[in-house]
Amino acid sequence: MTDASPKKPHHHGNLREALVLAGLQLLEEGGPEALTLRRCAALAGVSHAAPAHHFDGLPGLRGAIADEGFRRFRNYMVDAEVTGDQTDRGRLKSITRGYLNFARDNRALFHLIFGYDLSGAGKAGADAGHFAYEPLRRCCAPFVPDGTAPQVVEAQVWSLAHGYASLYLAGRFWSGAPDGLFDAVMTLLDGVGATGALGTAGLGNGGETA
């Protein structure tokens, strides 16, 4: 069990970062219910009033944690991309593996960032979300057919990766599922940009996009 006793006070210059890291620790150890300003302050070794200087209440702290979560999420995808098969199709499949690995290693944080309303997050929060989305957009780009909105292909890949990760975390896959289940499901990505399964026939720039 992690020692949650008060630590030495942090200097003012890195207090915000210390509080975010304390929040991440509380989130992963106890889930959303464990995340409070008072507990973050105690874990960071500062007074319970200190977070008020950096965050607009608990929602502000959650937003700052979400920003850090999006950064880590992006790093998982990029790390998987650069260490995997360097063909276009290989990179596309690799980022979905990074997507799942992040969800598996950071369950509570995964739920937090995808439950976070970016529409009300302000410019910093929206930028963090868009920054995290960039590897997916970039790896999908080679498979966007002429006359098709890029968001169509991106939504296909995103939905497949996120759906699998969410079902995995919820324990919805039957016991005894083969170790290669994820890779088998991701063979659907072989059809991205073509017609048929995950194809784009009939979906042009006029359609609604995410």
TrEMBL record:
<keyword id="KW-0804">Transcription</keyword>
<feature type="DNA-binding region" description="H-T-H motif">
    <location>
        <begin position="36"/>
        <end position="55"/>
    </location>
</feature>
<dbReference type="Pfam" id="PF13305">
    <property type="entry name" value="TetR_C_33"/>
</dbReference>
<keyword id="KW-0238">DNA-binding</keyword>
<dbReference type="InterPro" id="IPR050109">
    <property type="entry name" value="HTH-type_TetR-like_transc_reg"/>
</dbReference>
<dbReference type="InterPro" id="IPR025996">
    <property type="entry name" value="MT1864/Rv1816-like_C"/>
</dbReference>
<feature type="domain" description="HTH tetR-type">
    <location>
        <begin position="13"/>
        <end position="73"/>
    </location>
</feature>
<dbReference type="InterPro" id="IPR036271">
    <property type="entry name" value="Tet_transcr_reg_TetR-rel_C_sf"/>
</dbReference>
<protein>
    <submittedName>
        <fullName>TetR/AcrR family transcriptional regulator</fullName>
    </submittedName>
</protein>
<dbReference type="InterPro" id="IPR009057">
    <property type="entry name" value="Homeodomain-like_sf"/>
</dbReference>
<keyword id="KW-0805">Transcription regulation</keyword>
<dbReference type="InterPro" id="IPR001647">
    <property type="entry name" value="HTH_TetR"/>
</dbReference>
